[in-house]
Design brief:
The protein is mainly beta and 76 residues long. 8% of the residues lie in helices and 29% in strands. A three-stranded antiparallel β-sheet has the order 1-4-5. It has a two-stranded antiparallel sheet with strand order 2-3.
């Protein structure tokens, strides 16, 4: 996670995922961390996927992603 100026605010290694869903299976990863500062925009990246940008309010509400058929992450 970086702020709008590109400063790294936090990093975390994802633990093994768990299967979720019934008809369409997905792999869920739970994680959380506190982000210092009060930037309005943040960039979130998961290794192997393009970075994504979110507002402070987006993050406050909680983020949930899925992998698209094109191999990118999209917010649910």
């Amino acid at each position: 996670m970086t702020d709008e100026e590109g400063k790294t605010l936090g990093a975390q290694k994802l633990q093994p995922g768990r299967a979720v869903g019934s008809t369409l299976k997905a792999c869920g990863f739970d994680f959380s961390f506190k982000v210092p500062g009060a930037a309005e925009k943040y960039e979130f990246s998961v290794e192997g996927f393009p970075p994504m940008q979110y507002s402070r309010e987006d993050i406050r509400r909680g983020l949930s992603f899925y992998e698209t058929e094109q191999g990118t992450l999209a917010q649910q």
